[in-house]
Specification:
single chain, Rossmann fold, about 5% strand
């Protein structure tokens, strides 16, 4: 019933390290900038980057809003010190406040959450440019497939080091690398509004989501996924429909074909 379960490949750490060294170190690149939220994805990304590139080539940036708990600020800074990486804190509340003053549409918490994500990414890119570094995103495979990220916010990055690891694999690797218990046990949350958690918003625990996505990756039908996971077929279809609905987030903006070769159609890099 539960044989569709993603397992962390033995070569994952080595592959990610090779990837980071190839992309983030060079004549015009001196490493990466990572946004540190206090969550497991950002903590793992920072750790993998530190191990692959060296502490001098990683900057961790904390981007708290007004609701960011003081104890989480301290914990995140302590984690950066544990890794030995440079650390900065940029308060986004003053920037966010100006947006709220200018746009009545931001009374909607989802719209405001998206703006926060885009503010944070704009700050990370400013810091990265000044340090000749790339922005390493912290999105995992589950989030990317589900479209559970903000377009041009946390999805607007240069690299996605853990982008081919399902959330359950992220947890497995974090345990293998002995990341702090409080980070590994914290409920996943983008922290975009009060009480927000990933799994409550998605309607499924990641253990269920990842089994469905793993079946989809293996080109299984919805009926076979339901049979092999024990998840009701209507729930399986709900996840699959979400993956299809958010396909636009994983693609370049569409362009009408006018010229001889068109970017994203028959002119591919």
């Amino acid at each position: 019933m539960t044989d569709l379960v993603p397992r962390l490949p033995r070569h994952a750490v080595e592959t990610i390290a090779t990837f980071l060294r190839a992309h983030a170190l060079g004549p015009e690149r001196t490493g990466v900038v990572v946004g540190l939220s206090g969550g497991i994805d950002s903590a793992l990304t920072a750790r993998l980057a530190r191990d692959a590139l060296g502490a001098d080539h990683v900057i961790g940036v904390q981007l708290p809003d007004a609701r960011f708990p003081p104890e989480l600020r301290e914990e995140t800074e302590a984690y950066a010190r544990l890794l030995g990486i440079a650390h900065r804190r940029v308060e986004i509340e003053p920037i966010e406040a100006r947006y709220r003053e200018a746009l009545s549409e931001l009374a909607d918490p989802v719209a405001l959450g998206n703006v926060k994500a885009r503010i944070r990414m704009a700050v990370l890119y400013a810091i990265a440019r000044g340090a000749s570094k790339l922005v390493a995103g912290t999105g995992n495979k589950s989030e990317i497939l589900l479209g559970y990220f903000t377009k041009y916010g946390d999805g607007g990055v240069d690299l996605l080091p853990i982008g081919d690891l399902y959330k359950t694999e992220v947890r497995e690797l974090a345990a293998e690398l002995s990341l702090p218990d409080q980070i590994r046990s914290r409920a996943p949350s983008a922290g975009l509004w009060e009480g927000q958690t990933d799994e409550a918003e998605l309607g499924f625990p990641y253990e269920v989501i990842d089994r469905i996505l793993f079946g989809l990756e293996g080109l299984r039908t919805d009926a076979e996924i339901a049979r092999r996971t024990g998840v009701p077929i209507d729930r399986v279809r709900e996840v699959i429909e979400r993956v299809e609905r958010n396909r636009h987030k994983r693609r370049l903006p569409p362009i009408p074909k006018v010229g001889l070769r068109t970017i994203g159609i028959d002119w591919r890099d």
